[in-house]
Each structure stands twice: as structure tokens, then as C-alpha cells.
């Protein structure tokens, strides 16, 4: 950085605005021009021609130095005032000492004073009107009072050195040059201001465009967040619905009762208007299967409705053949009508869903609604299809096993009775041995009867053996179903946290997903209260609401912030359901939790939950 640049940057500070720094630089430049073009040259001229007045241009040098010192000391406005008024004041003072009363002011000095009177308009602008008015007014007073001030100083100096000759020409040229320089600098400052204004306009337009783009991006992000929240809400809704159905399947073993409870729950929870549930039945083992309506909810009589439907007959039978969902949005007026106390009307949407597991259909689920079901509700029905198929299949196997056991017990009782009868016959045979010779005919008849009984016994044993083979086959099927249930449990362990607790909240069961997420071992959690997962940020009112809800036999659902063993935080969407006994009272509690991976979404859902509970 050269000397000129260093002088120009005296007092410049990054803490100041660009406008203030530009004014500081300008005052430094004006001071430098005053020094180089006026103060120093006039000091030499004064020493040569009027040594008694040399102190005045030396004061100009002091004023320049003072300007830089004040700028360096952060007294920037005082420095600019000195820079604006000192040139005219010192020139006027030099003129008053040099010119006697009655003499004309030398043209060169008049030109210098006229030029210096413009300096305030160079170092200040209209935004600093108080400083500008003060400096300009001071210069104006000095300029108009020169004539009247000549009477007070009558030194009688010779002013010919500045009114004629070489110095006159040089000073005249310098004064004109200063005038042009000041006008040029004012024009240049105005030009820079226009450029700055244009740049500000362009920057403003650019910022406006960036703000508009940012607003669009923010709207897009908000829309993505809204969609994500909606998807999260729908997944939680599906999870809760599946939990309710699973709870029903654990409570009821009878397919008839289970069908009624399930169809009622599905129609109410999905917001539909009516529904029916068909199960696959067979008259005999080798006969053709058919679909029998086991339960219906708010079911109006459909045209030619049948409680038993053959395979391939109607939409129900067709769904069985195709093994795929049927989704109708254009329903014939005479197909089915939804009735209420205010009248009846055809539905807008019919969903027929196969209940299938391992490519085997166990039944058909039919749902009708005034409104077209949303995608997440259809997804809920799809997931229910497989879950219900497994449940009804297990119910059938359990029922068949129970029936076979009862039949086996009956046959065992018959065999025991026949064995006792045979024993009695043998005793009678021994008692009548002495009479056998006399009663050969009677003995032969008895032997024939005995042979016949033995043949019946052999047949019964063969039937019992066949039944045992059938029971073994049924046991293999049960083992296969158990393997499938274990596979589903493994899938559940990968995606969902599951735990069970007794009536006091003590943990009695945990799945692998909870072990991986909470970072406790199974032994560390079993027998411990759920409070080991509690995070300090969770209000106690939320847990009080949770216990009040599940102890009353209802399902609790909420966003919970938990703490793992290592202190890390994980968020879950928790659904906690009581398992009720025959009297409808809780006997234990089952918790299903879905881990929320995105902390911002979890925090927002948690804050909304607190607002609903009046805790925030």
C-alpha cells in the first residue's frame, strides 16, 4: 500500500458503514490536496515575500494534520468540519493581514476563497444537513465579513507578489485548478452515488428474486414436511388399527364371535358404512370349497344376496379365484344400499379384499362406503387381509384339533367299553367250558359272535390309526403355522418395538427391536419399570394421562421421547393397549412403538401433542 493510499485510509474502520468510510476517505483526500496545493506552496511564498504571515499557511498544515489525527481518533465529524472550514478561514485571515483598508482584494485570493467556500458541499451531503449547514454558514459569514474586517488589520504589507507576475499566474492557475477539481470531485461523487443507487436497485431486485425463490423453496419444503407428517400420521393410524384387530384375535377363539367383533371394528375404524366377512368352508374334506358369510355390520339386503357363495360366483367368488383386491367406485344402484334412519342410498365405493396367507385364501372381506377410501385405509385393509387369514387359519386348526381330540376320546371310551365286554365274555366262556361239549351249537354261535366283535375291534383300531395319522398331519400343519408366525414375529422385531407389562408397569416381555433401540439387554429390562426409558423432557402429566387411559381399558397413543442406556435420545409413536380379561378388566398391557427417525418431525408432533394437552 503506497503513502497516498495510507493517508486516504486514516480512520477507516470495518465497524463503520461503507458510506461513512467513503466520507472519511474523502476528507483525508481534501486535506491532502489542501496540504499539497495550498498550505505547503503558500508557506514557501510567505517565507520569501511576507515572513510575518508565514504562520497562517503553517496553521493550514496544522489543520491538515489535525484532520488526520481526529479521523484516526474516531472524531470523524469534527475532522470533516475542520477540513471544510479551515481552508476558507485561513485564506480569509491571510487576506485580512495582507490587504489594507480601501484596497481591493487580490483576484487570486478571492478565487481561492470562492473555491474553498464550496468545500463543505464536497465533504458533507444532504443526509448530514446539520453539519453541512453549520460549515456552509460559517464559510458564508467569513466570506461576507472580509471587507469589514480589513479595518482591524493595517500592517501595510506589499501584495504585489500575488497581484502580478509569475506567482500571480501560478496561483491563478492553481485556484482555477482547485475549482475544477472540486467540481469534478462533486460530479464524481454524484456519479458514484448514481452507480451505487443502480447497484442497490439491482441488488434489491436480485434479493427480491432470491427471496421469491427461497419462499417457493420454503413452500415446497413445508409441503414435503406436511406430506411426511401426513404419511407418518397414516402409518400410525394403520399401526393402531392393526393393534386393535390383533387384540381382538387374542381375546376370541371362536371364529363366529371373532368374525362379528372384527367386522364391527373394521367398519367403525375405517370410517366405512357397512361390511361383511366370508370364510372358506367345505362340506367334506374332498368337496369343493365355498364362501359363507359369517358376520355383517349394517348390511342392507343386496340384490339376490346369498349367505353361501360358490367359487367364481359374483364378485366375492371372483375375488377368491383372482386372489386380488377388487376396488369399485362405480356401483350399480341395485347392487347394495346403505340404510339409516333418514333413508338409504347406494355406496360410492366397494372394496373386496381376499384374506390370504401363503397363497391360500381363508376368507373374503367386503367393505362399502359413501366416500372413496383413502390409500392408507386401503393399505390398512390389505395388511388386515394377511393378519386375519393367519388368525382364522389358526382358529380352524385349533377347532379341528379339538374336534379330533374329542373324537379320539370317544373312540378310546368305546374301546375301553368293548374291552370290558370282551373280558366279561371270556369269563362267561370259562364258566361254560364244561357245557361246551353239550352246547356245541351254542358255543359255535358265541365263537362267531366273538369273531365278529374281534373284527369290529380290528376295524376300530384301524380307524383309530387313520385318525392318529390325521392328527399327526394336523400337528405338522400347526408346526408350519408356528414357523410362519415366528417369521412374522421376526419381521415385527425388525420394524416395531413391542413390550408387555403387568398391571404395575413392570416389564414382562421385550422384543429384539426394543433391545437394539434402548441398548439394554433383555435381563436388564425384564422385571424393571418402564420408567428406565423415561427422558427428563417428558412431562409427568403425559404419563399420568397414559396410565389413566390404559387403566380404564382404553388404548393410549402419543409421541414419546425416550432415553437409551447410553444416554442417546430416540422418539417413538407409541400405542399402548390393555389386554382385558373376561370381565373387561385389564390383566396386562401391550405396547407397540414405531421409531420416528426424523427428529424435527418428532419434535413438531411432540409440541403439537403438548399444545393439545394444554402443557405448552
From TrEMBL:
Chain segments carrying region Disordered: 430-458
Residue span, PAS domain: 502-553
SUPFAM superfamilies cross-referenced by the UniProt entry: GAF domain-like, PYP-like sensor domain (PAS domain)
Family annotation (InterPro entries): GAF (IPR003018), GAF-like_dom_sf (IPR029016), PAC (IPR001610), PAS (IPR000014), PAS-assoc_C (IPR000700), PAS-like_dom_sf (IPR035965), PAS_fold_3 (IPR013655)
Coiled-coil ranges (or none): 197-235
Source taxon at top rank: Bacteria
Domain named PAC: residues: 553-608
Keyword vocabulary terms for this entry: Coiled coil, Membrane, Transmembrane, Transmembrane helix
Biased composition (Basic and acidic residues): 435-444
Spans through the membrane: 29-48, 54-70, 77-99, 105-124, 131-153, 165-189
Pfam families membership: GAF_2, PAS_3
Listed name of the protein: PAS domain-containing protein
Organism in which the protein naturally occurs: Marivirga arenosa
